[in-house]
Amino acid sequence: MSDDPVQYGTQPRFVIVTIPGRPTAKGRPRFARGRAVTPQATRDAEATMAQYMRLACPEPLAGPLDLRVWFEFRRPDSWPKAERDRVDEHEDESWYQGRPDLDNLVKLALDSANGILFADDAQIVHLEADKVYGSENQTVINLQQAEGGHDGS
Question: From CA 133, how far away is CA 61, in angstroms rounded?
Answer without folding.
Answer: 29
